[in-house]
Design goal:
The complex is a heterodimer of chains A (203) and B (163).
Chain A lengths: L4 H26 L4 E2 L3 E6 L3 H4 L4 E11 L5 E8 H12 L10 H26 L3 E3 L3 E6 H10 L7 E11 L4 E9 L1 H16 L2
Antiparallel strand pairs in A: 1-7, 2-7, 3-4, 3-5, 3-6, 4-8, 7-8
Helix pairs in contact in A: 1-4
Chain B lengths: L11 E2 L5 E4 L3 E6 L3 E7 L4 E7 L15 H14 L7 E7 L8 H4 L1 H15 L4 E6 L5 E6 L5 E6 L4 E3 L1
Parallel strand pairs in B: 1-3, 6-7
Antiparallel strand pairs in B: 2-5, 3-8, 4-5, 4-6, 8-9, 9-10
Classes of the chains: A alpha+beta (203), B alpha+beta (163).
Chain lengths: 203, 163
Amino acid sequence: MKLSPVQADAIQELGNIGAAHAATTLSQMLGSTVQMSVPAIKAVDIAELGTYMGEEQAAMVAFELQGEIQHGGFVIFYITKESAIRLTNTMLGLTDMNRTMNEMDESAIIEVGNIMVSAFLDATAELLGFVMLPSPPALTIDMAHAAMSTLIAGMGEEANEVLLFSTELTCDEHKIDSDIIMLPETNTLARIVELLENMMKAP
Amino acid sequence: MSDSSPQNQQTAMIGIGEYRVGSFPMMTIGLGSCIGLTLYDDSLKIGAMVHIMLPDSAGRTDRPGKYADTAIPAIIKELNALGSKNRSLVAKMAGGACMFEYFGANLNIGERNAERVRTLLKDNHVPLSAEDVGGKVGRSVTFLPGSHGRVSIRRANGTSGEL
């Protein structure tokens, strides 16, 4: 599905609102300021996925979009492995950066992902009047490309191009760099675009 | 999808759904449920590498490298055109992992990919000499047709090995 510039702008604004809510929850959990980038929409050919995500180690908490549309795609909380350790250290009151990640870290990361993605989806649902519920979370800490390509392989439709819709959330004080990534299926995207266009038309 | 000049030994990166045939080094990074499959002909010192994403094309022909059932005939055909006999080819594969245990629908893609590749190789009389598949770990694979078809694997958990 190709987006017109107006449609892309509308989706960007939707992402802005969702990510702002997610940023607020992250900021509350960390007790410090969180900055947010302008949401970026990229149409990525699957053969080129490696230029966006490679072998770097990252923790990814993935949620399948459910609700009014079943199998609507995925929303992912992405955080580099180093940032993930800093994040859980901050939350758990630890300082050692060179430790291996344990179950406690994994639970903490899943919980952060859960809270942020719920905030993101709540805000977008409220705006659109369209409910996208997250599935239970699934965590993997691995090569970013390995995790992302597996999610793309699990998408219902057959596409050679995917729409990656990401907003970067950073916390300077704790040097935490994370992203909220949305990987919508065409049916979800079409529905969102339709709702946004209706909103813009409304007097 | 053709050979590069012999002096150009730059590593070719094989993205999802792509394949290359030749004697130059090839690499796929970050295999999750995808399969990195190599075929090597030691008599001609050439080989092919493909990055397969799904088991079945269901009739689609736009990206043969993306599906096991179109990828394997495509690379065999190209190797045949360069003079390789199926029986002198040796296959190795890696990947087919299960990255997210929770997602039921995703659970079997890696496994189904690997199973389909095994069947198709058998149907085409190409022996599978080694594999490193399954588990819950991402893998990167380097293939060196110029060094007797050496296939080395680097896993996300820090371990590495040769096939």
